[in-house]
Amino acid sequence: MAAIINIEVIDMFNTIVVAIDGSEQAEHALATACDIANKYKSKIHLVHSPELETAAIVVGSGAVAIPPTEEKIAAAGKQVMAQAVEQAKKQGCSPAECVIANGDPADEILRQVEKSKADLIVTGRRGLGGLASLLLGSVSHKVSQNAPCTCMTVK
What we know:
CATH class: Alpha Beta
CATH architecture: 3-Layer(aba) Sandwich
Structural class: alpha/beta
CATH topology: Rossmann fold
Number of domains: 1
Shape: elongated
Strand content: 15-25%
Oligomer: single chain
């Protein structure tokens, strides 16, 4: 007579926060997150908070920074998020929430992690060189250092 073994399935990842910035690395991160979400029946939350790049005009010996308008920032954020939602749906995931924020990207990602009680964060890695990474900082590094849950950085 065979023994019956009761195996309890453990939900490894219930809620996944994915950082979206429109880059190729973020697309890879989203693809990875969708793959995991499909396997574990997880909810995914997308977060986009742009790091603003400004243009500058050189006048004489000085430069004048020209920040993008709020309208341009909002329009670009909506476009980045719409593309991410489309990509997720093509991979069988329907995001539970999409957040477009205006603060420091790492802080906004961590805020969403706390709010959603996520147990996994997936970010892309930009691959900045050693000096650039030291000078500019790294969103994925800051997130992994301050996260209350598991982090995955996708190249």
